[in-house]
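Good morning C.,

I know you're traveling, so I'll keep this short. The sequence:
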Amino acid sequence: MEQRKISRTVEVTGHLIDSWILPKILDDLIDLGTEFVIHRLEVGRGKTDRSYARIEILARDEATLEAALEDMRRLGATPVDVDEVRVDAAPADGVFPEGFYATTNLPTSVRINGDWVPVRFPEMDCGILVEGETARTIAMNEVRKGELIVVGHSGVKVEPQERPRVPTSTFRFMGSSVSSEKPKALAMQEIAEHVRDAKARGGKVLVVAGPAVIHVGARDHLCQLIAGGQVDYLFAGNGLATHDIEMALYGTSLGIPLAGGMPPDTGHEHHLRAINRIRAAGGIRPAVESGLVDSGVMYSCVKHGVQYVLAGSIRDDGPLPDVITDTMQAQAAMRSCIRDGVTVALMLSTMLHSIAVGNILPANVYTVCVDINPGTLTKLVDRGSHQTVGLVMDVGSFLQDLAHALLARPALNIVREEE
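The tokens, ready to paste straight into the viewer:
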């Protein structure tokens, strides 16, 4: 006698066919050992039309059905007989209740009093805090005892990433692959257009940069972008700021003269002496305001009002007074900047910072990763930042081309401003 199956019906709306959402749903149901019946399927006829599907899932037991429903939620399908979201109080500061809902970086909604309420600030690996009729993501270390946190998956809806509804460039089409064989000219056009569009719409542009930007001689080009109003936030570590300031004070980066010539005998000490002088001055801003530092990336940030977050590392020398050595404080500072309207993020030759920032970026932030090492992009995408498109190339060439594309003028060799 055939075992009787239990069932639940789900529905999903969106660009189901060309974004491969429906095939993914059906493929996952088969892999999970369930059966399905498509009771209704309406396919959009135009590029802007959305499709709709109603699917009955049949499973041999409750555990299999619940696993299927959880997988469907991640793909944007929700039960027709949807329940209200369930919440439980945090038992202590910094502790989520058992069974809390762990977020993705995709747009998410929760059902409160019969309405779907958007969860503000989508971010992966957080909980959802419900306050009255509103909901937002919250990091584990930020939750306080008694706050109401979403538990389970009932009443939670996730919107999957969809294929863009505008003509897709070759660069974007190849974005998820890790390859140096991408058309760089098309790539630069698309990136520049995204930056222009962000600025025109009031969005913010974030640059996440590693010390390689200084070492390869790309400092001037980043300064041009900052001075030209194309950068709103800079995230970096002690290394970039130190070697940038070392260049301003001694003309070297890690003791190597970037203008050419033999390294000085004591060049290996320059980064330490640079840190020491900034510590004596009381920080980067006082050093700029006093005239001690009169060129470079940090100088440009101070002069043009670009907010920077320097996050510390266990391997830092010094560090500079501006470096946030508490990782949770650094994460909170970054999160605050991102939530101020960042819509474009440029990750420039820094694996650790790229992965760290990628973890707190919403999926709808246009993210570009530039690195000579393809492993950086691979690791970033593997960690969940699937919106990332990448270029395997020298960061110096990238910044030079981007500055030229955005500022419509040849790259300059001047980074010092006249007072």
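Safe travels,
E.
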